[in-house]
Write a structure and sequence with these properties.
Blueprint: H1 2-6, H2 15-59, H3 71-79, H4 84-92, H5 101-108, H6 129-151, H7 158-163, H8 170-177, H9 182-185, H10 193-217, H11 220-233
Length: 246
């Protein structure tokens, strides 16, 4: 007690306030330590998924065996769309070779249309057999990516994954790119006008990114096709400032 009374803190008029502050500081320090431990465990829990995704990228030749980015991986970073991996697979395997600009625009629309549609969209007759072949190849490439992800142990939400490659708008975008007005297209679809307009705008944005990919690859012919496809769909009501694209 004598030692306590001899302390300069004993006679301090604010000693109770200081004591409460020190208690609060100690409690906060303990909370910080608990959070550090919790975040460390959470990060360790994510590590297996990160490793699995890295192996997927190596299987697809986006990364080399040492984890360094390859040309295909650089192309994917230029896109950064909903499913850039399947899209670079489409580009690198020449799925779009021989397609007209309107067909290319239709194909690319599959990667910007996340609305859920029925499986019958995969069987709808398209304006050309070549476009139907491209649709089938898009779905095949997308399915192959999903299979590799599952083989490597990546957690995949099937419904969400298939929203990233949705062929339900290909016919509409092809007709739009071919010059048809929206007023003639709308009676043939149950989709809302705003949904279609937003998808067309996003398709145009993605086509611009793909021009950069073609430039990266040194493929002038492919870049020209992407450029022409961009110009075809950049017209009319879809690009008039409105609630659809603001």
């Amino acid at each position: 007690q004598a030692l306590q009374e001899s302390s300069k803190c004993h006679l301090c008029p604010l000693k109770l306030q200081h004591f409460e502050q020190e208690q609060a500081r100690s409690a906060l320090g303990a909370d910080i330590e608990d959070l550090d431990r919790e975040l460390g465990r959470e990060s360790l829990g994510l590590l297996p998924q990160l490793r699995a995704k890295e192996r997927v990228l190596q299987d697809l030749e986006c990364l080399d065996v040492e984890g360094l980015i390859e040309l295909k991986g650089r192309a994917a970073t230029e896109i950064l769309a909903g499913d850039e991996i399947s899209l670079v697979e489409v580009v690198f395997h020449n799925v779009l070779e021989g397609c007209s600009p309107a067909e290319v625009a239709a194909a690319i629309s599959a990667f910007v249309f996340p609305d859920k549609v029925g499986e019958e969209a995969e069987e709808v007759l398209l304006p050309s057999s070549r476009l139907e072949r491209v649709r089938d190849e898009l779905l095949t490439r997308h399915r192959q990516v999903e299979d590799i992800m599952r083989e490597r142990g990546v957690d995949v939400d099937t419904e969400e994954f298939w929203r990233m490659c949705n062929v339900g708008l290909m016919d509409i975008v092809y007709r739009w790119a071919s010059g048809e007005p929206l007023a003639e297209i709308m009676p043939d679809t149950s989709l809302q006008e705003g949904t279609i307009v937003r998808a067309i705008v996003r398709t145009e944005e993605l086509l611009r990114k793909l021009q950069d990919v073609a430039k990266l690859l040194g493929n002038d012919a492919l870049r020209q096709v992407f450029k022409e496809a961009t110009e075809l769909i950049h017209r009319d009501v879809a690009f008039v400032p409105s609630l659809y694209i603001e």
